[in-house]
Amino acid sequence: MNRNKLIKMFATLIAIVLLVSGLSRLARLNSMSLTEYAGQNGTASPAPSAGLTAPPETASPQASGSGEYRTAEPSPSHNPSVSAAPASRPTGAVLNGDSLLEQRCALPEAEEFYYEPLSDNLRRYVTGVSYPAANESQKEPVVTFEDLRYVHILHFDFEGSVTEGELICNSEIAGDLLEIFYELYRNEYRLEHVRLIDEYDGDDIASMEDNNTSCFNYRVVDGTSSLSKHAYGLAVDVNPFYNPYITYGQDGTRNISPASAEAYADRDKDFPYKIDEDDLCYKLFIQHGFTWGGSWNNSKDYQHFQKTLK
Known about the structure:
Elements lengths: L2 H25 L6 H7 L29 E2 L19 H6 L8 E3 L2 E7 L3 H7 L21 E9 L5 E9 L3 H13 L6 E2 L9 H6 L2 E2 L21 E3 L7 E4 L5 E4 L22 H8 L3 E2 L6 E3 L2 E3 L4
Parallel strand pairs: 6-7
Antiparallel strand pairs: 1-2, 2-3, 3-4, 4-5, 8-13, 9-10, 9-12, 11-13
């Protein structure tokens, strides 16, 4: 093969790669990946959250309270242009960075537990995944970005290590979630993963199979055309693999979601990470005015806690 043919083949290959990349970009409607964000804004890293060691002395669960939150003040060294972070940091924490520090509301006793609005970069990241992209043929979403909040927490994973977690939720329950997850942390309650559903391309099944605790996802209830409470950011699924969603057909058949969690559908058995009425997680959500899917009559959603706004 002569040199001219090789050059033409190479040029054609480059053109194909660029075309595929462009189409992929278009499909996400200008959403931003974590890698792109880091490359666009440099490689400097903000300081990781402090306090990733032992929690305060274990406390018993407290009843829901009004909860006073401290508004964070910018530090003298605050630099909004410093944006990229180590890959181990949660995606939302990287994309929000300290850009909304003045609007951040943190627990006075634990600054790592905070909520704040979604930055433009985080909005772009979730658009077309957990949040619907603009489409003239569809209705306007029932929630806007202004209705949502980014929530940052600490939690114990299944290895007993303290790690960062994050959720997106409705602004009306952001304070509830801070208090609930802080009490879970103080009691060393184990949560395997607490990641944005966007890390799973918005796929609820994939998230459940990875036992990921999550909240906001603009989707319908499985098997229906009705919007889920998750679409409003008003529902949380906790350790879903060990606490599956079970529905029953008219013929008596049982459907378990995720299907791979069949071993945990029998709630008469004892096993780790099981949510029941004696569980701390159950008690805390109920104290904060949530209802539990495990108490439903026609189906059982043992992972699911939701709140109805008045």
